[in-house]
Amino acid sequence: MKKKAIQDYYEDSLSHCYGCGTNNPHGHQIKSYLEGDETIARYKPDEKYSAGTPDHVYGGMVASLLDCHGTASAAAFACQAENTSMEESQKPVRFVTASLKVDFKNPTPMGVELEMKGQLRSISGRKVWVDMSLTANGVVCATAEILAIRLKE
Amino acid sequence: MKKKAIQDYYEDSLSHCYGCGTNNPHGHQIKSYLEGDETIARYKPDEKYSAGTPDHVYGGMVASLLDCHGTASAAAFACQAENTSMEESQKPVRFVTASLKVDFKNPTPMGVELEMKGQLRSISGRKVWVDMSLTANGVVCATAEILAIRLKE
């Protein structure tokens, strides 16, 4: 059976995001997974999402991928900190972005599967801070940090 | 005659950005203008760019709009600091993003024209820092700061 992604556990009513919503047929529907103590997502953008030059991915896409991967990571890490999981949690777990900072280190190449990774920095109540990277062919194109806030039920 | 936007002065070879490229028919083609000492852009996202809920705009779009408006603002402010303009500059002026930080203050409503504004914080050589806001119906949905770097010729 195919492993379910973090986003697959979001409530239906909160799954319309263009970046990662399973209920948005037009969007990227990126899928993030918890693997040990880090999160990972892979995505190859369509060519239309080009930067100033056609051979690179535009910054907005890079930010979008890291934003959606960041909130998913926060959800998974919050569950992990409570010794549960997205699957086993008795309550819906959904985070939104309070702050996102992206540092663009190298141009992001087009036509390549991008890899986003996340690591937990800290948790305080409903706030979760996650550090991330986006790499292409093993080269770090961007790093990012997100402060995500858990939605109240 | 219709006023030309900052992006209309980008070189053709650097105008493929999904966010603001005049040569990208699939993208947003946002248009930024210098008005006095600030920059302004207005854009109404298509409904497909929804957040977790359909009545809000997803964070990636907010970041994208601020990213493209930020690099455009940097270009206009750099010209202004040299007592020239995008139109009159003897050299092509194009900035790329080194760092973008977005603080999400309120959910961004769908179906509303969003207004992005930029103000120059400082200039040092090829580096320009710009402070921005994104408002909807007069409510600040996000603030942002960008460090943009001028491309060498």
UniProtKB/TrEMBL annotation, chains A, B:
Coiled coil: none
Keywords: Apoptosis, Cell membrane, Cell projection, Cytoplasm, Fatty acid metabolism, Hydrolase, Lipid metabolism, Membrane, Transit peptide
One GO location term (cellular component): cytoplasm
Pfam families named among the record's database cross-references: 4HBT
SUPFAM superfamilies noted in UniProt: Thioesterase/thiol ester dehydrase-isomerase
EC number: 3.1.2.2
Membrane protein topology class: Peripheral membrane protein
Example GO BP: fatty acid metabolic process
InterPro entries attached to this UniProt entry: HotDog_dom_sf, THEM4/THEM5_acyl-CoA_thioest, Thioestr_dom
Reaction(s) catalysed (UniProt annotation): dodecanoyl-CoA + H2O = dodecanoate + CoA + H(+); (5Z,8Z,11Z,14Z)-eicosatetraenoyl-CoA + H2O = (5Z,8Z,11Z,14Z)-eicosatetraenoate + CoA + H(+); hexadecanoyl-CoA + H2O = hexadecanoate + CoA + H(+); (9Z)-octadecenoyl-CoA + H2O = (9Z)-octadecenoate + CoA + H(+)
Residues covered by the Thioesterase domain: 56-132
Domain of life where this protein originates: Bacteria
GO MF assignments: thiolester hydrolase activity
Compartment(s) of residence: Cell projection, Ruffle membrane; Cytoplasm; Membrane
Family the entry assigns: Belongs to the THEM4/THEM5 thioesterase family.
Protein's name according to its UniProt entry: Acyl-coenzyme A thioesterase THEM4
